[in-house]
Specification:
Largest sheet of chain B: 7 strands, mixed
Radius of gyration of chain A: 15 Å
Largest sheet of chain A: 7 strands, antiparallel
Chains: A alpha+beta, B alpha+beta, C alpha+beta
Shape of chain B: globular
Mean pLDDT of chain B: 96
CATH architecture of the largest domain in chain B: 2-Layer Sandwich
CATH superfamily of the largest domain in chain B: Aldehyde oxidase/xanthine dehydrogenase, molybdopterin binding domain
Helix content of chain A: 25-40%
Number of helices of chain A: 3
Structural class of chain B: alpha+beta
Oligomer: heterotrimer
CATH superfamily of chain A: START domain
Number of strands of chain B: 28
CATH architecture of chain A: 2-Layer Sandwich
Low-confidence stretches of chain A: 149-153
Distance between the termini of chain A: 18 Å
Helix content of chain B: 25-40%
Mean pLDDT of chain A: 86
């Protein structure tokens, strides 16, 4: 599954960058996130509960940040095991651009699912991923700036 | 006699099924029963670097968590393939090791790495989720067409290019020469789509270990319990045969998928011994899609040459056959001796050459599925013959007639010698039933509604009742292919027939009884069948390859011959007549030309009372036979399919399907027609609906009935059936076998009809509306830009 | 655990069961009525069709505890001693082979005929095929199942 998008966020690039590296912010914004703890300077341990089609699973795994070019871009990569539901893994290249005091966040995602998720939910992965990405950015936006700003995704 | 051969006797076995009293494996509950749940790989290809079962072991109800190292440590042997194939360069096939529980590497999504045994099924499944397996993922090789390429990952590290074998049949030089001199050459490239068998009853097993006797009992969903016992004993070292009883109770369909001895049954037996508990496992449908052997999956290029009269001069075939991650029981025989040997079809072809490369991929094993090799051969031949007819401007039926074999026996260029057939008569019968003459008018009428009508043929021949044992053995078979029968006449005259075949829908409990009824003139109610239990029936090869009739019933006939001979002696002695004058009919034995007779029950009683038997005769009335046929049998037929395609949506509707066959003698037309209905529907499923899809990562995307399209009642029509009859000379009844013909013959008839309707050959199975629509679009001239 | 009481095949039953127990498991494992079969895990195949308060329901889609007070009829309970006309028709027309989908087919068939009769509609072959959309058979190709239901409809 490949997906990309852009979101305009009404905050400075520094603020957005800091938030994107803040475990508390990420925990609050990632849909279904039950746990997210920093395990190293660039690593997190995460537990996320998701429902994809008929499969509901608790994914547990490690998230790693690489290619860090503060405050412009990083790659966030992770893999979660969901027990009999299978696994999900993937990465997103995230770039932040300054634009008139606001920040334009762009991302490209490549993700794959395996096991039962692929067998039962593969048709639904794209729409679910889009929904989750949308929800994350809504949450993120709301967290940084309670006033909603224009979205250009 | 109304219950005899040829009668439409209603099925004796139906009562328990229509009242919900059938006893399938999952319906059985043992004392002291625990449940197994398997921990399966979510990856297509990975190293197993660690298994942490500590969390699972601590969970409620968990009795044990067992893994592959323990299994192999206990001496349980690797899973075998049953037919040794030699490559064209003389080298033996390359077999990758297959342990019931993977040890170092997993090779397909669903490969089992551990098993949890727990008090309840729910507890076992929950704990299986908690087993933490560390995988080091490896790139998979998934594509049938590409897995041989140099840059592909290796499914088995030691097997270069993922090649199991590179086999050939026929004469390449002769075929090349014939093709180079041909007036016309037709070429085709096609894929035979991968299918999931989908017997409605998922696989299940209950293993019961008796430590006092060191004895095992396995209840399982098997088409061939004796072969299961043999293999479990001789190769997997579970227990010696006399310490292992295998029972296949009511089995809810097989279609090939329940021939094999799978990892789960082996593991349950071993786990029963390890835990001292009866261990039950029942697959859910997701597991069935992941782990039941799939069928078909060929990629083929072929060339057929014709002279200027339309006579075929040569046929050259190049096939890659996917066998999946491991070589399953019949996986190597299916694309060779059940495919390459059928490449002559119904046609007199003087030069044939077939090359088959069997390849490994990171997918579930592929093995025999209803038809097994013969559908792949038939699809190829019948597509290329119709394509050739269109290219040469010949009528598709007429070109076939130009090439029909008419003299029998006929020795093909690919090993087999056909025993009998009358292809012209059956084709005539099908054309008449399909009202081919009226087709142009129907096509015009459809066109007036904006619809495209097409007519497609399939003239197929197949080989059933694999035989004889010695010939099969010389070609690499790992077992004999005979069948056994025992006929027991009880003192009251009722009869039990013990057979080594197994009925899982085929109606043996009725048709086998008809044989005794026919022979002695007693009602079928007084005859019963015993099958599916290795403690009751001495040995048998089971049911597959449409063999139960031509081989299994023939064994019954031989045993009945012996019973009849003894009965005549007893009666002749009792009535002081000559054996030659004894006539058995209507439930009596009479002395011809007199009013002297004995009723059937009096004969049984006489045999067991033994008060007045001929000098030297042993008491009792029980006879056994082992029947080993001298040749295969060769069912054939012509199917004609008429479709209507909606060019706007690509939806194909089958408006008529005619199946005219030649199965030789028919014991019960009602049951034979039922076999054709079901087989044709599976063939239509392959042609229009079904296809297993793995993505590039080896993930199974068609893992449920939401994504794998099974034929439903509204996808198929009611069928028109006709029977021709040229009895097989190779067995006492003249039977040919009817179980697979529908699935073998139907796919090309459907696709040829679509090709005829839409005017392009560029259509692959399954011909989904999207594919048909796209194929139609591709034939349209591009519209010039404004 | 929750207590659930219902009537199954005319008999009152009451059990303490986990809340997650499906009706199909309740029938098969608690009551040992194994005529109701389970052929898939996505409610597609219809082998588990039973009647709940007179209507066809896939037993794998219903939680047993949600059926407090309901009247459930399974394949074991459609005839008193003899055979229901639908059962007879399946035998007469060779509407079954392996028998695994058969209980669901018969229960669905009875429901189809009852509904059409109640609505005063005639039951054509096309309608039967359409109505059987929720039941999969791998053996018969449906040909004889359709004939059996047509025949039973005339006798019910």
């Amino acid at each position: 599954m490949d997906m990309n998008g852009e979101h305009r966020i009404a905050a400075s690039r520094e603020t957005v960058w800091t938030a994107l590296n803040d475990e508390d912010v990420l925990r609050a914004c990632i849909p279904g996130c039950e746990e997210l703890n920093k395990t190293s300077e660039t690593g997190f341990h995460a537990i996320v509960v998701q429902k994809i089609g008929p499969v509901k699973a608790r994914f547990e795994g490690e998230v790693e940040l690489t290619n860090i070019k503060a405050p412009e871009s990083y790659t966030i990569q992770g893999e979660g095991k969901g027990g009999v539901a299978g696994f999900a893994k993937g990465g997103a290249d995230v770039t932040l651009a300054e634009e008139a005091g606001e920040t334009l966040l762009a991302y490209t995602v490549h993700a794959t699912v395996g096991g039962k998720l692929a067998q039962l939910g593969s048709r639904l992965i794209d729409s679910t991923a889009r929904k989750l990405a949308g929800k994350f950015f809504d949450n993120f936006q709301a967290h940084l700036n309670p006033e909603p700003a224009a979205e250009t995704a | 006699m109304s219950d005899g051969i040829g009668a439409r006797v209603k099925r004796k076995e139906d009562k328990r099924f229509i009242t919900g009293k059938g006893k399938y494996t999952d319906d059985i509950r043992m004392e002291n029963q625990a449940y197994a749940a398997f921990v399966r790989s979510p990856h297509a290809h990975a190293k197993v670097t660690g298994i942490d079962a500590s969390a699972a072991e601590a969970m409620d109800g968990v009795i044990a968590v067992l893994n592959g190292a323990q299994l192999t440590g206990d001496g349980i042997g690797n899973i075998i393939t049953g037919w040794a194939i030699t490559s064209k360069d003389g080298s033996p096939m390359n077999i990758g090791a297959w342990s019931a529980l993977a040890t170092e590497k997993v090779r397909y999504v669903g490969d089992a790495v551990a098993v949890v045994i727990a008090e309840t099924q729910a507890q076992a499944r929950l704990a299986a989720e908690a087993v933490d397996v560390d995988y080091e993922e490896l790139a998979p090789s998934v594509s049938t067409a590409k897995t041989l390429q140099d840059n592909q990952p290796l499914v088995h590290d030691e097997i270069a290019n993922n090649l199991c074998f590179d086999w050939e049949i026929g004469d390449e030089a002769k075929t090349d020469a014939a093709l180079s001199g041909a007036a016309h050459i037709t070429e085709i490239e096609l894929t035979n789509n991968r299918l999931s068998p989908n017997a409605m009853e998922p696989r299940a097993a209950i293993a019961v270990f008796d430590s006092a006797e060191d004895h095992y009992t396995l209840y399982t969903t098997s088409q061939n319990p004796h072969v299961a016992r043999l293999v479990l004993s001789a190769f997997y070292n579970v227990a010696p045969e006399h310490k292992l009883r295998v029972i296949a109770p009511d089995v809810g369909g097989g279609f090939g998928s329940k021939i094999y001895i799978y990892p789960e049954e082996i593991t349950c037996l071993w786990a029963s011994m390890k835990t001292g508990r009866s261990v039950k496992w029942t697959a859910d449908r997701s597991e069935a899609f992941m782990t039941d052997a799939h069928g078909r999956d060929h990629v083929t290029k072929a060339r057929m040459g014709f002279d200027d009269t339309g006579k075929i001069v040569g046929f050259k075939v190049d096939t890659i056959a996917n066998i999946g991650a491991y070589a399953s029981l019949f996986a190597t025989a299916t694309p060779t001796y059940l495919y390459g040997t059928l490449l002559s079809g119904q046609y007199d072809i003087p030069a044939i050459y077939g090359n088959v490369k069997a390849v490994y991929t990171n997918t579930v094993p592929v093995d025999a599925y209803r038809g097994a090799g013969r559908p792949e051969a038939t699809y190829l031949i019948e597509r290329i013959v119709e394509k050739a007819a269109r290219e040469m401007g010949r009528d598709v039926a007429d070109l076939r007639r130009t090439n029909f074999i008419r003299a029998f026996p006929y020795q093909t260029q690919v090993l087999l010698a056909y025993d009998s057939g009358d292809f012209d008569t059956v084709l005539d019968m099908a054309q008449k039933a399909a009202d081919v003459a009226g087709f142009p008018a129907r096509k015009a009428e459809a066109a007036s509604r904006g619809k495209l009508r097409g007519l497609g043929y399939s003239c197929f021949i197949e080989a059933c009742g694999l035989a004889p044992s010695a010939a099969a053995g010389s070609l690499g078979a790992g077992v004999g292919l005979w069948e056994s029968a025992e006929v027991r006449v009880n003192p009251v005259g009722t009869i039990e027939i013990l057979t080594g075949t197994h009925s899982h829908g085929q109606g043996h409990e009725t048709t086998f009884c008809q044989l005794a009824s026919d022979r002695f003139g007693i009602p079928v109610e007084n005859v019963s069948i015993v099958h599916g239990d290795t403690d009751k029936v001495q040995f048998g090869m089971g049911t597959y390859g449409s063999r139960s009739g031509p081989v299994g019933m023939s064994a019954v006939m031989k045993a009945l011959d012996k019973v009849e001979a003894k009965v005549k002696k007893i009666v002749a002695h009792s009535l002081e007549a000559s054996e030659d004058d004894i006539v058995i009919e209507g439930g009596e034995a009479k002395v011809a030309g007199t009013d002297k007779k004995m009723a059937w029950h009096e004969i049984g009683l006489a045999a067991y009372m033994a008060h007045n038997l001929p000098e030297g005769m042993e008491p009792g009335l029980k006879e056994t036979s082992f029947f080993d046929p001298v040749n295969f049998s060769f069912p054939s037929g012509t199917f004609i399919c008429e479709v209507e395609v909606d060019p706007e949506t690509g939806v194909t509707q089958i408006v008529q399907f005619v199946a005219a066959d030649d199965f030789g003698t028919i014991i019960n037309p009602m049951i034979v027609e039922g076999q054709v209905h079901g087989g044709v529907t599976q063939g239509i499923g392959q042609a229009l609906l079904e296809g297993v899809v793995y993505d590039d990562e080896g993930q199974l995307l068609t893992g449920s009935y939401m994504d794998y399209t099974m034929p439903r009642a509204d996808d198929v029509p009611s069928y028109v059936i006709g029977h021709g009859c040229t009895p097989s000379p190779n067995n006492p009844l003249g039977l040919k076998g009817c179980g697979e013909a529908g699935a073998i013959g139907a796919p090309p008839a459907v696709i040829n009809a679509i090709v005829d309707a839409i005017g392009t050959e560029n259509i692959e199975m399954p011909a989904t509306p999207q594919r048909v629509w796209a194929a139609i679009q591709a034939t349209q001239m591009p519209v010039a830009a404004e | 655990m929750t207590n659930v009481s219902m009537t199954v095949n005319g008999k009152a039953v009451s059990r303490d069961i986990p809340d997650t127990t499906l009706l199909s498991d309740f029938l098969r494992e608690e009551l040992r009525l194994t005529g109701t079969h389970v052929g898939c895990d996505t409610s597609q195949c219809g082998a588990c069709v039973v009647h709940v308060d007179g209507k066809a329901v896939k037993a794998c889609t219903a939680l047993a505890v949600s059926l407090e007070g309901a009247a459930v009829t399974t394949i074991e309970g459609i005839a008193n001693g003899g055979l229901h006309p639908m059962q007879t028709a399946f035998n007469d027309h060779h509407g079954l082979q392996c028998g695994f989908c058969t209980p669901g087919m018969i229960m669905a068939g009875i429901d189809i005929v009852n509904r059409y009769k109640a609505q005063g509609r005639s039951l054509s072959e096309e309608a039967i095929r359409d109505e059987l959309e929720g039941n999969i058979c791998r053996c018969t190709g449906y040909h004889n199942i359709v004939k059996a239901i047509e025949d039973a409809a005339a006798k019910m």
